Amino acid sequence: MLYTSFARPGGEGVIWSLGRLSWGIAIGSTSGPGTPGVGFAPLDWTEFSRDLIVASHFTPHVGVYNLEGCVRQGFLPRLLTMDWGQTVVLPAASVQRGERRIWLFRFVLWVASNLIYLAAGALFLIWLSWRRARSRQKPLRTTGSA
Question: Which of 35, 51, 76, 104 lies in the 20 to 30 Å Cα band around 120?
Fold first, then answer.
């Protein structure tokens, strides 16, 4: 499920970045508060049809979230007559922005999933530094035989 409405501008770049790894893609969101096509509001027809066409290049299994929003915005009759073979131009900046967002998301997920190991490593390094500093503060003991 790719909510490109939450990735404006350049949400289509997210589909391009993740699409090649997908067996199915669900496009959304078409319902919610606000003016369609602005901010975090639902997709308008231009964005929605673009996202569907981009997703259809990667998989024949394209879903829509949600159909109520499609009915409310009048998308269903337009879907019946949509030209699925039309070309869509994705700006390079949009694709790069999508790649950066995906990289950042993967990095955050990696850190979150390895947090216990990172914390253990940090604690070990702190302990090691503390031991080294403590051993340098101790005076050397010499034996009195000469």
Answer: 104
